[in-house]
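Q: I'm building a small set of examples for a reading group on sequence design. Run inverse folding on the following structure and report the sequence directly after it, with nothing in between.
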């Protein structure tokens, strides 16, 4: 078995029908893991993704449309995955949403939704997955946090609070399972050009009367010294490393992959 061989393992990746989550699901599938997809989108498109992952890698791939804003649904996702792919040895908590507004104008419903999906869902899925990991004496929990899990930006109170909370949850879980063959880590990316970020670019361009290129350079990447988007493939490669045998001694870490953002 090489360091990235996950044949026979079962992996759940939340928010994996597009963007970073889909790239992580593809990387895990290519390493031999059976994969449970989760997220929203066109059902035909999702089925095409599911079928292609299964056929190309000779693995079992399931799909759940569980709404992770609901704690019971997040807990139930793990049971769904066990029924569909056999075991949950790897859990990647990636699902997330964003909203930008000053604190005193931040809609309460937006706050609740962001905290529920970006933070609370990771608690529910992790709590549900850990008993099986302990019984099988193997587990990997990877939480996709953000540079905003380590530093703040204005107008993103709920997102920053949720991602800081996710880093804290990561450390707590890591300490609780430190004497078992289970690890828990957070990956903290800077800006990646995902559909979520593309939406922010469009919103900022409209609000400030700027071109997309100006928004990307002067607003979105202002804090990222590299002035380049982080590549989604780099995040999936890091997640894959953490899930393999070589990641066995890395736990409780918040790993920056942000073009130098948090080095300031």
């Amino acid at each position: 078995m090489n360091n990235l061989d996950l044949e026979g393992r079962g992996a759940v990746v939340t928010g994996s029908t597009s963007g970073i989550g889909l790239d992580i699901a593809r990387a895990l599938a290519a390493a031999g893991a059976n994969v449970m997809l989760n997220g929203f989108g066109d059902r035909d498109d999702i089925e095409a993704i599911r079928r292609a992952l299964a056929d190309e890698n000779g693995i079992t791939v399931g799909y759940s449309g569980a709404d992770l804003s609901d704690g019971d649904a997040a807990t139930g996702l793990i049971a769904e995955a066990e029924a569909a792919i056999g075991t949950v040895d790897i859990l990647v908590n990636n699902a997330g949403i964003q909203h930008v507004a000053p604190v005193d104008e931040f809609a309460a419903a937006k706050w609740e939704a962001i905290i529920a999906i970006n933070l609370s869902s990771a608690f529910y899925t992790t709590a549900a997955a850990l008993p099986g990991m302990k019984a099988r004496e193997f587990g990997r929990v990877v939480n996709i946090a953000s540079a905003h899990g380590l530093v703040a930006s204005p107008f993103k109170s709920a997102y920053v609070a949720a991602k800081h909370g996710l880093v804290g949850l990561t450390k707590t879980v890591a300490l609780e399972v430190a004497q078992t063959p289970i690890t828990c880590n957070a990956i903290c990316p800077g800006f990646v050009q995902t559909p979520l970020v593309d939406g922010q670019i469009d919103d900022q361009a409209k609000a400030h009367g700027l071109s997309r290129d100006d928004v990307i350079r002067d607003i979105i990447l202002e804090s990222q010294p590299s002035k380049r988007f982080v590549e989604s493939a780099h995040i999936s490669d890091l997640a894959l490393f953490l899930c393999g045998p070589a990641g066995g001694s890395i736990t409780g870490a918040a790993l920056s992959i942000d073009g130098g953002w948090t080095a300031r």
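The chain has two domains: 10-190+230-256, 195-229.
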